[in-house]
Design a protein that fits this description.
By secondary structure, the chain is mostly helical. The chain has three domains: about 1-105; about 105-180, no CATH class; about 265-340, no CATH class. It has helices at about 10-20, 25-35, 40-55, 55-70, 75-90, 90-105, 110-125, 125-140, 145-160, 160-175, 180-195, 195-210, 215-230, 230-245, 255-265, 270-280, 285-300, 305-315, 320-330, 335-340. α11 runs parallel beside α13 and α14 packs parallel to α16. The longest helix has 14 residues, at about 90-105. It is globular and about 80 Å long. It holds the Pfam family PPR_2.
Length: about 350
């Protein structure tokens, strides 16, 4: 009974709801908490986070006022959430004011706040703030951790300082033994964003040589880079490796559509069939995917064999477009790939 008069179990449930995106359950949990005990600053921060996730500035500000009315002291998390919310909603002056309040509360005792501080300065385009915070971390601690390098490299990449980012990466590589793929992924991603594919390839080789295991994001970054160059053989290969790297794949619908569209436009039947096999293994096949495969066959002027049987085996229904595409491709030539599939 005493335990239920503590905020801890309620805060745990609130955190779980927010992590799962179940924001509609937050008000009832807050109400129940208030009937048993008084919210603490962690409760209010979670409440703020729920409203910030929906970019609801007015509701978040009301929660902040409640903190003041409850005679509680906002902590650095309070101002971090508010700064991020104001930044996302283009309330830049309010964001800067909240960030200043946050800075007053950041110290060696709450080291985790420094990484957040760097990210928020970066989001506001404040190069000086980013670099000054980094200097403060370096003067306060003997060694920077991965979270701090991650925030710093991400911030300077966002600010267009790629040379500085590469220098920071080399520094991290020389001192860290964690082999956290998230950090080199930032550099790899920027190479691909800049369409510097060959340099990106060399950097990927360097990652592997250093014993860093590519993550799902590594493969997705490479796939997107090769997609820009329309190098579909490598795109599909990376796509398959990305899915193989995780126990359960959360479908990236946008990437699937972009890959399918390019395969269709190129009439790349071999690539489309390989993608189909990859997605079948991942348990993600549907009518739209089969229609995309058929459009690739139509573009190539080739006949797609036993499609209806394959769809039945995958428990996928035909729609009107499927039937029309089967009719259209049935007049086309049979190729080596068609024969192999049949």
């Amino acid at each position: 009974c005493g335990f239920l008069k503590s905020c801890l179990p309620y805060n745990h449930m609130l955190s779980m709801y927010i992590s799962n995106g179940q924001f509609e359950k937050v008000p009832a949990m807050i109400k129940e908490l208030k009937s048993k005990t008084s919210p603490d600053i962690v409760t209010y921060n979670l409440w703020l986070t729920a409203f910030a996730s929906g970019n609801d500035v007015e509701a978040a500000e009301k929660v902040y006022l409640k903190v003041k009315e409850a005679d509680l002291s906002p902590d650095w998390v309070t101002y971090s959430v508010l700064t991020n919310l104001y930044s996302k909603t283009d309330n830049l002056e309010k964001a800067k004011l909240a960030l200043k309040e946050m800075e007053k509360l950041v110290s060696k005792k709450n080291r985790v706040a420094f990484a957040s501080l760097i990210s928020l300065h970066g989001n506001l385009g404040d190069k000086d703030g980013v670099n000054l915070t980094w200097k403060k971390i370096k003067s306060s601690f003997k060694k920077m951790n991965d979270a701090e390098y991650l925030s710093m490299i991400s911030a300077v990449v966002k600010l267009g300082e790629f040379e500085q980012a590469k220098g920071l990466y080399e520094e991290w590589e020389s001192v860290s033994g964690t082999r956290d793929a998230r950090i080199p992924n930032l550099i790899l991603g920027e190479y691909m964003n800049r369409d510097e594919i060959l340099l990106g390839d060399k950097f990927y080789e360097r990652i592997v040589e250093k014993g860093i295991n590519p993550s799902y994001s590594t493969w997705e970054i490479l796939a997107r880079g090769y997609l820009k160059r329309k190098d579909m053989e490598r795109v599909v290969d990376c796509f398959g490796k990305a899915i193989d790297s995780v126990k359960k794949w959360t479908v990236n619908e946008r990437l699937v559509k972009e890959v399918c569209k390019e395969l269709e436009e190129q009439g790349d039947v071999k690539g489309a069939e390989k993608l189909m096999t990859i997605l079948q293994k991942a348990g993600h096949v549907n009518t739209q995917l089969y229609n995309s495969l058929l459009r690739a066959y139509a573009k190539a002027g080739e006949m797609a064999l036993i499609v209806e049987e394959r769809m039945a085996k995958d428990n996928v229904e035909l729609d009107d477009e499927t039937k029309e595409l089967i009719r259209l491709t049935s007049r086309m030539r049979v190729t080596e790939i068609s024969s192999t599939i049949s």
